[in-house]
Design a protein that fits this description.
Helix content: 40-55%
Strand order of the largest sheet: 1-2
Order of helices and strands: HHEHHHEHHEHHEH
Oligomer: single chain
Radius of gyration: 19 Å
Largest sheet: 2 strands, antiparallel
Structural class: mainly alpha
Shape: globular
Length: 182
């Protein structure tokens, strides 16, 4: 990669453009931000940035799914939520304006699948609702409100009536929601 972590080789830049939905400028900006999270050009190149540092990004501070974003996009064998530069690009690419509805819905499903079992069950849906509404006493739903909401979600989304929402069912629901892409 050359002498410093702040420079990105032209062949890598071209490859990243081909493999993502990001423009050259977006990739260069992502590399600059990632390098800053690593501590700039000072010291040896660090191949991963900790989840704690990633979560300091202003774009993630208010995101209720910030922890899950790191977990889903991290390829770390340690399952610690740390991101490599390629993981960071994947995250940015999946939610870029140019990403397809299929890509966005695939990653949204993975983020909402809190137990990583390939389906959204009542437990996942409860965590999803709590992330969206907040878990303070004044925003938390009552047990009955939560039960009714989950029942309504499953009634609308669970096409095969197995008590869970799989990726295909999720994408079917999303395809009918034009606001999802935004």
């Amino acid at each position: 990669m050359g002498g410093t972590s702040s420079k990105l080789a032209k062949d890598l830049l071209s490859e990243y453009q081909e493999l993502t939905f990001l423009t050259k400028q977006e990739i260069l900006l992502a590399h600059k931000i990632f390098s800053e999270l690593q501590g700039g050009g000072n010291g040896p190149y660090i191949s991963r940035v900790s989840k704690a540092k990633i979560l300091t990004l202003p774009e993630l501070k208010a995101n209720p799914f910030r922890e899950r974003l790191c977990q889903v996009f991290s390829t770390s064998d340690l399952k610690d939520g740390s991101l490599s530069f390629e993981d960071f690009l994947d995250l940015l690419s999946a939610f870029s304006d140019s990403a397809t509805l299929e890509i966005k819905s695939h990653y949204a499903f993975r983020i909402f699948d809190f137990d990583d079992d390939g389906t959204l069950d009542a437990g996942d849906l409860e965590k999803l609702v709590n992330c969206l509404t907040g878990e303070t006493d004044d925003t938390r739903l009552t047990a009955e409100e939560m039960r009714q909401l989950i029942s309504n979600i499953l009634e609308e989304s669970d096409i095969d009536k197995d008590g869970t929402v799989n990726l295909s069912e999720f994408q079917h629901v999303i395809s009918r929601s034009p606001d999802f892409v935004r």
